[in-house]
Design goal:
Layout lengths: L1 E5 L3 H4 L3 H10 L4 E6 L2 E4 L3 H7 L6 E7 L3 H13 L1
Antiparallel strand pairs: 1-4, 2-3, 2-4
Keywords: Sugar transport, Transport
Protein name: Phosphocarrier protein HPr
Pfam families: PTS-HPr
Length: about 80
């Protein structure tokens, strides 16, 4: 399952947005990736998310594969869109 989302101001709503995003992704069994501008990272990788450089206003694709993929995509989408 894939879905596009426009990243909101996650720094404004979360004390530690990168760690909180990884925690949210790790709550699911599915493999979750965040894709943008030719880059694809595992949403469960703290270092990957840090290197990815999520900024307000960029569009990303959230991709998940697994038994809880629809819930995973929806959760990550809500987190990023704020």
């Amino acid at each position: 399952m894939k879905e596009n989302v426009l990243v909101g101001d996650i720094d404004k709503l979360h004390k530690n947005p990168i760690a909180e995003l990884v925690q949210a992704a790790c709550a699911f069994n599915s493999h979750i990736e965040i894709i943008s501008e030719g880059k694809s990272i595992n949403a469960k990788s703290l270092m990957g998310i840090m290197a990815f450089g999520l900024k307000p206003g960029i569009e990303v694709v959230i991709s998940a594969e697994g038994d809880d993929e629809s819930q995973a995509v929806e959760s990550i989408k809500k987190f990023l869109a704020c």
